[in-house]
Specification:
The chain is α/β, with parallel strands linked by helices. The chain is built from four helices and three strands; from the N terminus they run βαβαααβ.
């Protein structure tokens, strides 16, 4: 990338890279670290035509997230549906196919001035 003076690096973090997670210290720690690495690489490569950004998904309907949602709903004495409805302001988890459009844009030439950013894709969970 440096030799070509062009590149796009897009990291996958999480909203938990910006906030903590009850009963889950290692996961947010790794995601916070990833955001620090992203920002450092963005500074180091900005003048070389390389952008470095991160996406920070909220709760996405995946096998791993399903297990956490089921565990937490049971622990709280709620149905999965009731618990899930309260996870985001839009009242649901994200579907995996709702993430790629932003990634495609960040990978494009049109995104050449966007670097060092961490984009929430989270149904309004974090409005920062």
């Amino acid at each position: 990338m440096i030799d070509r003076k062009y590149g796009r690096i897009i990291m996958t973090s999480s909203v938990n890279g910006k906030i903590g997670l009850f009963l889950g210290g290692a996961y947010p720690a790794s995601k916070h670290g990833l955001l620090g690495l992203m920002r450092t690489l963005a500074i180091e490569t900005a003048k070389q035509g390389i952008t470095v950004n991160a996406i920070c998904p909220g709760p996405v309907r995946t096998r791993m997230n399903n297990m956490r949602v089921e565990y937490t709903a049971k622990r709280l004495g709620k149905s999965v549906e009731a618990f899930e409805a309260g996870l985001t302001p839009i009242g649901r988890r994200l579907e995996p196919n709702e993430i790629p459009p932003l990634v495609v844009y960040l990978a494009s030439r049109e995104a050449s001035v966007i670097t060092g950013q961490a984009f929430n894709i989270d149904g309004g969970l974090l409005m920062i």
